[in-house]
Amino acid sequence: MNGVTTAETFPPIPDEGTAEAPWHRLDRRMLLIRPVLDVAKSLPLLIGTLVLGHGNDWQWIGLVATAVTVFVGISHCLTSRYRVTATQVEWHTGLLLRKQRAVPRDRIRTVDVMSEPKHRLFSLAAVRIGTGRHSHGKGPGKDELVLDAVTGAEAQRLRTLLLHRKPVEAAGVETGPPERLVAAVDKRWLRYAPFTLSGIAVVGATVGTLYHFVHELHLDPVRYGPLRELAQQYTAAPTWLVVLTAAVGLLVVVSVLSVGGYVLSFWNFRLTREDGGTLHIRRGLVTTRSVSIEEERLRGVEVKEPLPLRMVGGAKCVAVAAGLREGKGADKGGGLLLPPAPLGRVHEVAADVLGEDVATVPLVRHPRRALTRRLTRAVTGVLLFAAALFLLAWIDFLPAWPWQAALVLLPLAVLVGWDRYRTLGHALAGRYLVTRSGSLARTTVAVRRDKLTGIVVHRSFFQRRAGLITIVTPIAAGKGHYHVVDVDESDGLVLADHTVPGLLSPFLVAEAES
């Protein structure tokens, strides 16, 4: 079949000990893409050696390095093979330097299916098989396999086989288990995109790249063409007008980029529940991604309300699940259950996923002493910042107005401190412990009490003086631990004892008897 595999070519996985599982190879159509990508990655080295090394013997270094890179990529596509046995997933690759890797099937936690533009050109996909343990580098961890690339039907077959532990019949195209729609993106939710401020990162990266490019070439952009005329106009304009125009222009650019990022990331977003207890997430426009979360590994949910999004009544929902890859932001790790959407809809999805309405449960307020701590910390931060600016002004390194302007932030700091206190709360709702904290990034977390690995009672020096404690709940999922911050000492110990019944009882009884 010219190296192209389809769903019909794969028989059911044989039982252990009855037959040898067959080996499969990556789709050969990747050979049309991989060399082009390798040459594109080597362009800086290739151009640098050809231009700087013109007339010298070492100008061929770039060509040799590029040829080696292309050869390694082609050999990877030709020699990679994998198979799924009754106990593990095996992967072999390499021509000169051979590599072998095996992942036990009972340790597999996630099977992510991603289709980038290079894959979609030939209806292919990359399958990432993970165990929930990851290295801190950029590449995949030792317990993670990446099959790049296989057909869409084969990717679906592997996901069903490895997550649902069900053999896949070799008849027709695999459709996967039946599923029920839990949530889908609504086009009206685009109005929340500008308030995610995701476009700021794009603007910052673009400005940084342009500045570095201009600096290296010793160019002054304001000396050329339209930029020179624009600079002259702004030089003649009042300062307040320049600042206002720049702020409005930046706001428009960030908003447009944020809307574009929302469309690219969450186009056709669908959250479904499959028979057998699996949540399936699909999203993406140019690059599509498919993530599955076994509900037996779901430990809770996290409702995030950044301040700009909260001001317009929006939020997003993230899964707290064992085995999900943690990245910069939960959506990078694949645990996003709902993109920025109306808060009410987020609460509905959280209740549907957990089977209990925990997001809207009334929370217990924390004592007024927690308010004092928040106001003190907020005001102290502004005063220290103003003091540092004052010292710089005193040694004539800065003018006097920066430290005076910093003092204007004091009322804002008081408001932030008050809002942080007003946000604090906790509750026990059925099987879940619910805790809320934060102001600029308010977060409400509900975690399974029976899945906690312990309870930690933390008290700092200032907390002891105020009669407050912080309850830390370690859990093998999400961030690894969540906090109930600045709760009254006696109430916090009762909460800890009720969260994991019997764990602290011996210590509490011993203290009472003493």
UniProtKB/TrEMBL annotation:
The chain crosses the membrane at residues 31-52, 58-78, 195-214, 240-264, 375-395, 401-418. The keyword Transmembrane helix applies. It comes from the Bacteria. Residues 79-160, 421-498 form the YdbS-like PH domain. It holds the Pfam family bPH_2. This is Putative membrane protein. The keyword Repressor does not apply. PANTHER family: UPF0699 TRANSMEMBRANE PROTEIN YDBS, UPF0699 TRANSMEMBRANE PROTEIN YDBT. The lineage of its organism: Bacteria, Bacillati, Actinomycetota, Actinomycetes, Pseudonocardiales. Keywords: Membrane, Transmembrane, Transmembrane helix.
